[in-house]
Amino acid sequence: MRWSADGLVAVTGASGRLGSRLAFRLAAEGARQRLVVRDLARAPRLADGRPLPECEVVTAAGYDDAVGMRAAFEGVQSVFLVSARESADRVTEHVAAIDAAVAAGVERIVYVSFVGAAPDAVFTFARDHFHTEEHLRGTGLRWTVLRDNLYHQALASFVGPDGVIRGPAGTGRVASVSHDDVADVATAVLLDEDPRRHDGVVYSVTGPTALTLAEVATLLSDVTGREIRYEAETVRQAYASREHLGASAVELAGWISSYEAIAAGELAGVSGDVARLVGRPARSFEQWLDDYPAEWEHLLVPPSSDAGGTDA
């Protein structure tokens, strides 16, 4: 596929795991882009500290900063819109960002959604994405939706300090995906020489296989040399075991319903969209473990406390 670098692309969430990866890919392809961040100091830069080529950086206080978001989108052709942080106002924030793009004269939005987005999805945050998608469809803008599965990195974060993954996922499977694959798909969609073929299309962005959490635990045990296991919980047990975290009711419902969605089979579907759009297979969880040891090194076996040793 040949890339087209015509038109300015705005990348929201550019300091995050996904947005920063996309920013580097767009820069490598010579695309003109505007990075939208909350903090200028956290904007992606080259290894030597220089700004990315063909890139400008702007700040906005958040998606609900109507003035800041509209200014960030002025003169932009395409917006890459990542979802806001989980909160009770999430859909309202998404709507505000989309409306700011409309007001600024943006032509299209590529929105990062979630697999199985629906008004009755088991995963509560997938319901938020459904309502955002519905608003986007009604704007008259050209749009493409990338419905991602859970990220590989999220699976590693499920492990507690005691080496146990706990949750009401049963024996369900999850086709988790890497941030790199999502960024590659976004690059393909944003810079395609025939971009209109992506208009009105919903892509399912998943990994190449669907694993149970017991299988995830086994793979993590293999790379860490530590016993990591999955322990199924009931929904009531899941809420009780997370009470001490001090999270909001919205956050707790989202975290726990992600496991319930796995149990219900809503995250098990494996799509070939990464391979079709990028021209190579999606990266497996095992490959991600090899590529990103820094993301799971906190799970390594601690130093031995045998006689003569020290605890650290």
Tell me the layout of helices and strands.
Layout: E1 9-12, H1 17-28, E2 33-37, E3 55-59, H2 66-73, E4 78-81, H3 90-104, E5 108-114, H4 124-137, E6 142-148, H5 152-157, E7 164-167, E8 173-174, H6 179-191, E9 201-205, E10 211-212, H7 213-224, E11 229-232, H8 235-241, H9 249-263, H10 273-278, H11 285-291
Parallel strand pairs: 1-2, 1-4, 2-3, 4-5, 5-6, 6-9, 7-11
Antiparallel strand pairs: 8-10
Helix pairs in contact: 1-6, 2-3, 3-4
Organism: Isoptericola dokdonensis DS-3
Pfam families: NmrA
GO molecular function: oxidoreductase activity
Task: Just name the CATH architecture of the domain at 9-148 and 178-205.
Answer: 3-Layer(aba) Sandwich
Helix/strand/pairing class, anyone? Answer: alpha/beta
- Write down the oligomeric state: single chain
Shape: globular
Mean pLDDT: 94
* Helix proportion range: 25-40%
Low-confidence stretches: 1-5, 303-312
Tell me the strand order in the biggest sheet: 3-2-1-4-5-6-9
Radius of gyration: 20 Å
CATH hierarchy class name of the domain at 9-148 and 178-205: Alpha Beta
CATH superfamily of the domain at 9-148 and 178-205: NAD(P)-binding Rossmann-like Domain
What about the largest sheet? 7 strands, parallel
**How many beta-strand elements?**
11
**What gap, in angstroms, lies between the N and C termini?**
51 Å
Q: What is the name of the CATH topology of the domain at 9-148 and 178-205?
A: Rossmann fold
Keywords: Oxidoreductase
InterPro entries: Ergot_Alk_Oxidoreductase, NAD(P)-bd_dom_sf, NmrA-like
EC number: 1.7.-.-
Organism: Isoptericola dokdonensis DS-3
